[in-house]
Amino acid sequence: MGGGKMGETSGTVVAVSVSETHTFSKHNQESIRLVSGLGVEGDAHAGATVKHRSRVAQDPTQPNLRQVHLIHAELLDGLQAAGFHVYAGQLGENVTTRGIDLLGLPAGARLYLGDEAVVEITGLRNPCPQIDNFQPGLLAEVLSRKEDGTLNRKAGIMGIVLASGDIRPGDSIRVELPPLPHKPLERV
User: Fold this and answer.
1) 51 — alpha (psi -120 to 50), left (phi > 0) or beta?
2) For the stretch 128-137, what's the b/e string if a residue is b when 16 or more beta carbons lie within 10 angstroms of its beta carbon?
3) Cα separation of 182 and 125, whole Å?
4) pLDDT digits (tens, 9 = 90+) for 131-146
5) What is the pLDDT at residue 8?
6) Where is the MOSC domain (predicted)?
7) Is residue 22 within 8 Å of residue 104, measured between CB atoms?
């Protein structure tokens, strides 16, 4: 379906995490349940409308395009190599992946996680200054400027749940690209 070779990209779930409250970090779990149209069962950000506190203050009726937060383990590897102590779930992600260039996916790409769950990618996570409260200097590592002056957001991607299912570490991830032309990810 318009995916070509990249549509066959596959990766692995490294960790799954959840937090019932609006904490910065999430707790690793043996498995999580993705619920169609809502997000991660038991997570503070689950819901059909926005749950992120700053967005609720702007307009609580906005659709929740940030039901699931995914980060590539390769980012965590790089941060650890730079001297930061950061592990799966600590940057607030629900799903930590390996083997997929999450930031290179177009809007509308679908991730098939495990046997049943499907997440449609909506955009980039916009890292906030809270990340420096977690570890000083971390914001500069996940948010930089490209040569053309635009922001380079590296703190993961956001998506909505299209199909419910349980996912756990070790599950496979298959990527299906949307039809051309592809739209680059923007912050959501």
Assistant:
1) alpha
2) eeebeeebee
3) 19
4) 999 999 999 999 988 8
5) 55
6) 27-176
7) no
| Strand ranges inside 64-132, DSSP E | 68-72, 95-98, 110-113, 117-124
Helix (H) or strand (E) holding 141: helix 138-142
Residue-level pLDDT at 71:
98
Whether the pLDDT of residue 123 is over 50: the answer is yes
- Please report how many Cα atoms fall inside a 13 Å half-sphere around the Cα of residue 81, on the Cβ side: 6
Number of domains comprising the chain: 1
Q: Could you tell me if residue 143 is inside a domain? A: yes
Q: Does pLDDT of 171 surpass 90?
A: yes
Least confident segment among 57-61, 84-88, 91-95, 98-102: 57-61
Containing structural domain, residue 73 = 5-176
Inside any domain, residue 103? yes
Task: Kindly give, in sequence order, each residue whose CB lies less than 8 Å from that of residue 53, ignoring residues fewer than 6 positions away.
Answer: 22
Q: What is the pLDDT of residues 10-38, one digit of tens each?
A: 899 999 999 999 888 999 999 999 999 99
Give the confidence band of 151 by pLDDT, cuts at 50, 70, 90: confident
Judge residue 25's burial from the number of C-beta atoms within 10 Å of its C-beta, 0-12 exposed, 13-18 middle, 19 or more buried: middle
* In contact, 124 and 185? CB cutoff 8 Å: yes
CATH of the domain at 91: 2.40.33.20
The reply to whether 56 falls in a domain is yes
